[in-house]
Design brief:
By secondary structure, this protein is an alpha+beta fold. 28% of the residues lie in helices and 16% in strands. The chain is elongated.
Length: 76
C-alpha cells in the first residue's frame, strides 16, 4: 500500500511540474513602438530563466499559431 501511494505521489508531482510550466502563458497588450509601428496583442510564454520551455525552442510549438520551434537551446 505504501508503494502505491509513493508511486501515485511521484506521478502527481511530475504531472504538475511538466504540464503546468509548459502551458504557462501571458497575454501581451498591443503597443506602439518609438518608430510608430503598432504591435498587435499576442500571447507569449511566461517569462522565466529557462530556454527549454519557450515556444520558439526546437521541439516545442506555439499552441496559438501551430508553428514549430526552430531555435537551438545550446550553441555547441
Amino acid at each position: 500500500m505504501k508503494k502505491i501511494f509513493t508511486v501515485g505521489l511521484i506521478v502527481l508531482l511530475l504531472n504538475f511540474l511538466f504540464f503546468n510550466f509548459a502551458e504557462a502563458y501571458v497575454r501581451v497588450r498591443g503597443y506602439s513602438r518609438k518608430d510608430g509601428t503598432y504591435v498587435m496583442p499576442h500571447y507569449r510564454t511566461y517569462p522565466n530563466r529557462y530556454k527549454w520551455d519557450n515556444w520558439s525552442s526546437r521541439d516545442n510549438y506555439n499552441p496559438f499559431t501551430g508553428k514549430k520551434g526552430y531555435k537551438r537551446l545550446y550553441s555547441w
